[in-house]
């Protein structure tokens, strides 16, 4: 039996960050992980592999659509799917290996196996029981199921199976127009699949600023994705390697069927806490299956904490990372704080979508007076040169004080550009602060400044 100050259960972005931070703060730390490699869902079967496939398929798109115009002539590349998967696997290994290196560097012990908590202060991994003054649960999430839909990870897949398909399907049906469905739907559409997205609601990407969502849908439709909105999937059946998806249109209750080579179920995720022994410990769980915590990530059982997808809030790797750091710092006696009002969301399609803070809809609901500053990438020189002039930046500010309340970007590098606004919001900046900051020319970030200028006396290039 070994004794630790902290044992973290789960080595995803929440868990590994918490473990490293605890070690940096002088604690003796171990992290339990049952997968063959560190990094959790994000690095192994989520964010990182999907970004590799998005990048590769975007390169193909550029070659097919823009190379000749730029004077780059030659045979268009063809898809070697096996090699693309190998590139994806290599990207994963580099990143998971990186975490292993960081664990060694920070002297975090990796306890290999699946952990459980037989009692507060103890973590069991395999046959061994280890002692810990503090236990941080960072066990993440899993794809939620849909009644009538049986996932076999071959024909009917979650994102995990969709990252390992034996070949590019001719017809892919995606259930759910959320982040996973649209990112992976984009990948396969670019690789030549016919992609149909079936969504329960009347709009894509629930919770997103509605104007951006409409623009996003238009752009994806132009790229070949077909949307069936207001449709509730009833079930799937598989025969001879093909799947039939049955759905009902909500407007008239009519029933429809579509046959596909592959069906991707992307209807959300739920906390994964199986096998931890939480019920026996008496750890409080919400009706949504999330571990209940206070503002220091402590559960109702002394010495047990929880962070990331297993607790309340958006299921995002960076939210989990922030909570991991804050939880560690709290255990060390510091006074950390996570600002949940400034957590960016990014969809890594092309163009990207980045958002932070309030939407027009949420401000209307609050009855708060606001102003909108918008700027299209069509007025941005760099975007025009790079075939990336579709989309716009939209900044929402308080009508009286000019303070930035939220921002929504659809366009090139939106996932990076959004962080200028995040920093501004953290400092309580006004749009004028952004507008008066010199931005290098020619960069995409000038579009952010122009949108800020549009909150005042007007953008220059619009
Ligand atoms: P999601 O919650 O983003 O979207 C699920 C969609 O499925 C919703 O639009 C919902 O209305 C629809 N839906 C539910 N039941 C349906 C039915 N019976 N028929 C038709 N449509 C139905 O969930 P998603 O895309 O699975 O992602 C899961 C989590 O992973 C999210 O919290 C997401 O934020 C996170 N994630 C984040 C990424 C990023 O930040 N880039 C990338 C991938 C995942």
TrEMBL record:
Residues 4-324 form the FAD/NAD(P)-binding domain. Keywords: Disulfide bond, FAD, Flavoprotein, NAD, Oxidoreductase, Redox-active center. One of its GO terms (molecular function) is dihydrolipoyl dehydrogenase (NADH) activity. Pfam families: Pyr_redox_2, Pyr_redox_dim. Its cofactor is FAD. It is an enzyme of class 1 (oxidoreductase). Its EC number is 1.8.1.4. Residues 343-452 form the Pyridine nucleotide-disulphide oxidoreductase dimerisation domain. Signal peptide: none annotated. The keyword Hydrolase does not apply. Belongs to the class-I pyridine nucleotide-disulfide oxidoreductase family. This is Dihydrolipoyl dehydrogenase. The lineage of its organism: Bacteria, Pseudomonadati, Pseudomonadota, Alphaproteobacteria, Rhodobacterales.
């Amino acid at each position: 039996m070994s004794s630790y100050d902290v044992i973290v259960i789960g080595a995803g972005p929440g868990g590994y960050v918490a473990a490293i931070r605890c070690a940096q703060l002088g604690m003796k730390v171990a992290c339990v992980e049952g997968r063959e490699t560190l990094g959790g869902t994000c690095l192994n079967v989520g964010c990182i592999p999907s970004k590799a496939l998005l990048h590769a398929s975007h390169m193909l798109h550029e070659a097919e659509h823009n190379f000749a115009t730029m004077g780059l002539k030659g045979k268009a590349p063809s898809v070697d799917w096996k090699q693309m998967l190998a590139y994806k696997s290599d990207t994963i290994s580099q990143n998971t290996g990186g975490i292993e290196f960081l664990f060694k560097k920070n002297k975090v012990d990796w306890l290999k196996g699946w952990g459980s908590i037989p009692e507060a202060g103890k973590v069991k991994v395999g046959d061994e029981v280890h002692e810990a003054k503090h236990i941080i649960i960072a066990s993440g999430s899993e794809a939620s199921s849909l009644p009538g839909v049986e996932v076999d990870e071959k024909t009917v897949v979650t994102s995990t199976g969709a990252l390992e398909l034996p070949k590019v399907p001719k017809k892919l049906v995606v259930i759910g127009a959320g982040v996973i469905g649209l990112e992976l739907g984009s990948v396969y559409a670019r690789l030549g699949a016919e992609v149909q997205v079936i969504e329960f609601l009347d709009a894509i990407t629930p919770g997103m600023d509605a104007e951006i969502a409409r623009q996003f849908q238009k752009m994806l439709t132009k790229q070949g994705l077909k949307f069936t909105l207001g449709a509730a999937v009833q079930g799937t059946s598989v025969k001879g390697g093909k799947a039939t998806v049955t759905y009902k249109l909500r407007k008239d209750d009519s029933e429809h069927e579509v046959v596909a080579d592959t069906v991707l179920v992307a209807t959300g995720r739920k906390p994964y806490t199986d096998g931890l022994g939480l019920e026996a410990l008496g750890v409080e769980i919400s009706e949504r299956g999330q571990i209940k915590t206070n503002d220091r990530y402590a559960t109702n059982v002394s010495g047990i904490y929880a962070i990331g997808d297993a607790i309340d809030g958006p299921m995002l790797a960076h939210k989990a990372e922030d909570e991991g750091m804050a939880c560690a710092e709290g255990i060390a006696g510091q006074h950390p704080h996570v600002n949940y009002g400034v957590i960016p969301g990014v969809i890594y399609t092309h163009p990207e979508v980045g958002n932070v803070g309030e939407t027009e809809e949420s401000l209307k609901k609050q009855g708060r007076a606001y102003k909108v500053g918008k700027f299209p990438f069509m007025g941005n020189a760099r975007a025009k040169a790079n075939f990336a002039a579709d989309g716009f930046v939209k900044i929402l500010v308080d009508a009286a004080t000019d303070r930035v309340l939220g921002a929504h970007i659809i366009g090139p590098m939106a996932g990076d550009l959004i962080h200028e606004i995040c920093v501004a919001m953290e400092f309580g900046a006004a749009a004028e602060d952004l507008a008066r900051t010199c931005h290098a020319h020619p960069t995409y970030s000038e579009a952010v400044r122009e949108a800020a200028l549009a909150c005042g006396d007007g953008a220059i290039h619009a």
